[in-house]
Write a structure and sequence with these properties.
Layout: H1 2-6, H2 9-13, E1 21-23, H3 25-42, E2 47-54, H4 58-66, E3 71-84, E4 87-96, E5 106-114, H5 118-128, E6 134-142, E7 155-159, E8 165-166, E9 182-184
Parallel strand pairs: 2-3, 2-5, 5-6, 6-7
Antiparallel strand pairs: 1-9, 3-4, 8-9
Helix pairs in contact: 3-4
The structure holds inosinic acid.
């Protein structure tokens, strides 16, 4: 209650009701069910290790895992990108490594957004050094207009224009990850 009482007008303006929804929760669920079936077909009779990129992919990974019927385990990595303010320098640093060896295993890197491609290119290069049996990428969202590295995901939930989005795991300054729909973050709402 205290938090609500002390919320700034910016917080109030950004209540879930006021945010423009780009992709509704039922559309997200439907698309993830399709991707799960596709993964089952592509890796029929095999097992898969889903490697989620913290924190944004946590919710996507948890729903995707439940849409997959083949044997499936999880691991997580975390990265940080160097840069000042909102502009990244393009350098990516691993801040949490895998907990287990991946040699000879089918890996799907699970990411919330494929944007410039710098993060996933870095992670793919890193994982390939450990000689997995196969390596695929599942990205819930793809912003192809922003690409700096030539990389494509094998599984894409939705291709979207260049909006900054929040919700369903994605944040602005660590907030809004728990919104069930994917919403457009209004450009004039930044603190
Ligand atoms: P990339 O290295 O530019 O492809 O960056 C991908 C990462 O940038 C994503 O995993 C997100 O953490 C972040 N990102 C890019 N676009 C958005 C957005 O619209 N909302 C929230 N995070 C974003």
């Amino acid at each position: 209650m205290g938090e609500y009482a002390m919320a700034t007008s910016a917080h109030r303006a950004l209540s879930p009701v006021a945010l423009p929804v780009l992709i509704r929760r039922d559309a997200i669920a439907g698309r993830i069910a399709e991707i799960g079936k596709q993964i089952d077909r592509d890796l029929a009779g095999e097992s898969v290790l889903l490697v989620g990129v913290l924190k944004g992919a946590a919710i996507f990974l948890s729903d995707l895992a439940r849409a997959i019927s083949i044997q499936c385990t999880f691991d997580f990595v975390a990265v940080s990108s160097y840069g000042k303010g909102t502009r990244s320098s393009g350098a990516v640093k691993l801040i949490k490594d895998l907990d287990q060896p991946i040699e000879g295993r089918n890996i799907i890197l699970v990411e919330d957004i494929l944007d410039t491609g710098l993060t996933l290119s870095f992670l793919k290069r890193m994982l390939m050094q450990h000689h997995p049996r196969s390596l695929r990428v599942a990205a819930l969202l793809d912003k192809p207009d922003r690409r700096l590295e030539s990389i494509q995901a094998e599984y894409v939930g939705f291709s979207i224009p260049n909006h900054f989005v929040i919700g369903y795991g994605m944040d602005y300054a660590e907030r809004y990850r728990n919104l069930p729909d994917i919403c457009i973050f209004p450009p004039d709402a930044a603190d």
